[in-house]
Design goal:
- The chain has 3 helices and 4 strands.
- The chain has a 4-stranded antiparallel beta sheet with strand order 1-2-3-4, covered by helices on one side.
């Protein structure tokens, strides 16, 4: 095979590969797991987040576990009331979508404290699904969201 015919074969293969890639990438769609976690082609989020009530069970479970494991306390969340959304995507369309919420938590020690939390897209385990970041005012013992859970709000 001569050098010119090799070059033509190489160019034809490259053209076919380019056309196939263009057809595959041509439609507008949300980024897949590979693109968001490895390829990093840019932010393309769906913004499809569950309502505020969806995060309450996880907050309750994690609060109890944290109190038991780190603070040797039997404190638990008994109930939530006055659950409401505070903000949705306050950072704009190119920022990780978050739904900021607040609620009042009735605790097993008789206190009723505000809970500030955010439900974020792709913030679940290993970046898959939605996750919850939360703070119970007055019980942020390691000051992760200090002062008074201000860092957990928008």
């Amino acid at each position: 095979m001569s050098g010119a015919s090799r070059l033509r074969a190489f160019l034809a293969a490259g053209l076919l590969a380019g056309l196939g890639l263009a057809a595959w990438c041509g439609e507008s769609r949300a980024a897949g797991w590979l693109e968001k976690n490895v390829y990093l082609s840019g932010p393309r989020y769906d913004g499809d987040l569950p309502p505020c009530e969806a995060g309450l069970a996880e907050i309750s479970a994690r609060f109890s576990e944290t109190e038991r494991r780190y603070w040797h306390s039997a404190l638990t969340v008994l109930a939530f009331e006055r659950v409401r959304e505070v903000a949705y995507r306050p950072g704009g369309p190119n920022v990780l979508p978050r739904r900021y919420c607040t609620a009042m938590a009735a605790l097993s020690d008789g206190a009723v404290q505000p809970v500030h939390y955010a439900i974020g897209e792709d913030t679940g385990f290993a970046g898959a699904g939605w996750g919850v970041q939360w703070c119970v005012a007055g019980y942020d013992r390691n000051w992760a969201y200090s002062p008074a859970c201000k860092a957990a709000r928008p």
